[in-house]
Design a protein that fits this description.
By secondary structure, the chain is an alpha+beta fold. The chain folds into 2 domains: 1-36, no CATH class; 88-173, no CATH class. The protein has 7 helices and 4 strands, in the order ββααααβαβαα. The strands form 2 sheets. Strands 1-2 form a two-stranded antiparallel ribbon. Strands 3-4 form a two-stranded antiparallel ribbon. It starts with a strand and ends with a helix.
Length: 174
């Protein structure tokens, strides 16, 4: 029996010529492994990791320094004092877990407004995991109007939540 090349999805597969063998034959890809996804266009042959690193570098080059954005020595001291007073993550505490808070989060994004930046009612202590996960997803929903302002506060303390909402309302009133 002769084998003849047959093209299968841009890959060369070999099948037998007779009908019985052809019916039993299963097309296979060169190397015996079917690709997991379609090939991606990568300009200049850069890996995904290199492309992400380059994009982050371009973004950081456009940003002002952290000190210019308000995160200088004064912020580090205030942050340290706040974390001393609030050592546990309010989000984990709400779920009945205990984890050390390492991030002072601005409940409502300040967007460069230094008045809002320094309002302590707008701060909450979070662990890195909650800040980078839950808080970012809730904030994204809030920005597109699918969450209310109260949902940005991730803790269980109702008094603290009410303090945040009243501070927000005072801020909006002028």
């Amino acid at each position: 029996m002769k084998r003849s090349p047959q093209v299968n999805r841009n890959r060369l597969a070999w099948c037998w010529n007779d009908r019985a063998s052809l019916a039993r034959a299963r097309p296979f890809f060169v190397g015996g492994v079917m690709p997991k996804s379609a090939p991606m266009f990568r300009p200049h042959g850069k890996s995904r990791k290199a492309q992400v690193a380059e994009r982050k570098k371009r973004y950081d080059d456009r940003r002002e320094s952290s000190a210019r954005r308000g995160y200088g020595g004064k912020w580090r001291r205030a942050r340290h004092r706040f974390l001393m007073d609030n050592p546990l993550c309010v989000c984990c505490e709400k779920d009945g877990q205990v984890s050390e808070a390492r991030v002072v989060d601005h409940i409502m994004p300040h967007g460069g407004d230094l008045k809002l930046f320094w309002k302590r009612w707008n701060w909450q202590a979070l662990c890195k995991r909650c800040h980078d996960g839950r808080k970012q997803s809730v904030e994204a929903l809030w920005k597109i109007g699918h969450a209310d302002i109260g949902s940005l506060f991730l803790g269980a303390d109702e008094v603290r939540r009410d303090e945040f909402i009243s501070g927000y309302q005072r801020l909006r009133a002028g």
